[in-house]
Write a structure and sequence with these properties.
The protein has one domain (about 5-120): Rossmann fold. It has four helices and four strands. It has helices at about 30-35, 60-75, 85-95, 105-120, and strands spanning about 5-10, 15-20, 40-45, 80-85. The protein has a four-stranded mixed β-sheet with strand order 1-3-2-4, covered by helices on one side. α3 (about 85-95) crosses α4 (about 105-120). It is globular.
């Protein structure tokens, strides 16, 4: 399990914020300060960052699985998934997994753009 900082309403609609390389859960504190009632923000420390243990394997699939398993324990899904830097790429990959994120027209276009960017980098 990885560390997750929860802000906002317990049981509220979930927003997940994934930090970028070198960051941690505190990167979303400013977002949490503006969180409307009825929402909660879950901001994990990705494996090997902040208060989360190092992963056994440093590969994308292992990191995605650790994040998904931890967020499932919070009852986070379906959620609004967001991130920046490497966290944005991980958020897009998680959002493509069935039933994990809310999908609308904008989300589908972002996912298509992310797919193209990831393929161009061999991911």
């Amino acid at each position: 399990m990885i560390f997750v900082r929860q802000y906002g309403s317990e049981g509220g609609r979930s927003i997940v914020g994934l930090h970028g390389w070198g960051g941690d859960h505190r990167e979303f504190a400013a977002v949490a300060a503006r969180l409307p009632a009825g929402f909660r923000l879950l901001s994990p420390d990705l494996p090997g960052y902040g208060d989360s243990p190092r992963p056994e394997r440093w590969d994308v699939e292992a990191i995605l699985n650790a994040v998904e398993k931890t967020l499932q324990s919070f009852g986070a899904f379906p959620c609004v998934m967001t991130g920046f830097c490497s966290g944005a790429a991980l958020a897009a990959m998680l959002a493509r997994r069935e039933g994990l994120a809310h999908h609308g027209p904008v989300a589908r276009e972002v996912a298509r753009a992310e797919d193209a960017a990831l393929r161009s980098h061999g991911l």
